[in-house]
Specification:
Strand content: 15-25%
Radius of gyration: 16 Å
Structural class: alpha/beta
Distance between the termini: 43 Å
Strand order of the largest sheet: 1-6-5-2-3-4
Largest sheet: 6 strands, parallel
Number of helices: 7
Shape: globular
Helix content: 40-55%
Number of strands: 6
């Protein structure tokens, strides 16, 4: 990280993820500001095209705010501009006041698939991801504010009524079963906001669950 130099910091992150990809590993990035997703997704530019599955309380499609176009409210907007990103699916948004009409219209024009928290609860994880073809290469971006604040208070942009631990676990299990997961980031965990440590514990538990599901499904496919 280069203090007060977002572009250089993101460039360093992109370089690090490219090194992980060159080594043949599965990048699983823990953060930190959601702006990091713009760098981690950019690192896949020489890889085959992929779809982004995005769990968040917000749409994160802001073009610019206060002169900043590479902030934590813009990762999906900037990712949508990358030619190797085939599509974006956002699950769980419930704070649409954070998005201007202009940015919302831009997301619709791009073709973002948005399923609100209530929609996901009504139709379930399977139906919420049905529009993505089986076997698709998928990058998953998880913002901890997708969870309900009582179980994840350690973040700066809480929004009440979020997912439970088991709801996210079920969504990620479906993702691992149906798609080829090529990378993950889990962001916006801020320990200073949560002296109890339950937010970090939730992120760790969810990450272990997801990693286990990804490699379990990889092993199953090799045997099939």
């Amino acid at each position: 990280m280069i203090y007060a130099d977002t572009k250089r910091s993101l460039a360093n992150a992109e370089q690090a993820v490219r090194a992980l990809l060159d080594a043949g590993t599965l990048p699983y990035i823990l953060g930190g500001d959601h702006a990091i997703t713009m760098a981690t997704v950019a690192a896949y530019s020489e890889q085959p095209p992929m779809h982004i599955v995005h769990l968040d309380a917000h749409l994160d499609f802001i073009d610019e705010r206060n002169g900043v176009s590479w902030g934590h409210g813009s990762p999906m907007r900037r990712s949508s501009e990358m030619s190797h990103v085939k599509g974006i699916t956002t699950l769980g948004p419930r704070n649409m006041a954070a998005v201007s009409r202009k940015d919302w219209e831009a997301a619709k024009i791009y073709g973002s698939h948005v399923a609100s928290l209530r929609t996901v609860r009504i139709q379930g994880a399977e139906a919420s991801l049905r529009h993505i073809s089986d076997g698709e290469r998928v990058y998953v971006s998880i913002d901890v504010d997708a969870f309900d604040p009582p179980i994840a208070p350690g973040t700066a942009t809480i929004s009440h009524g979020g997912f439970s631990y088991y709801e996210v676990k079920d969504i990620l299990r479906v993702v691992a079963q149906r798609f080829e997961v090529v990378g993950v980031d889990f962001v916006e965990v801020s320990p200073p906001y949560d002296p109890s440590g339950i937010t970090a514990l939730l992120a760790a538990r969810t990450s272990l669950d997801f990693i286990g599901s990804i490699f379990h499904e990889r092993a199953r496919r090799r045997k099939a």
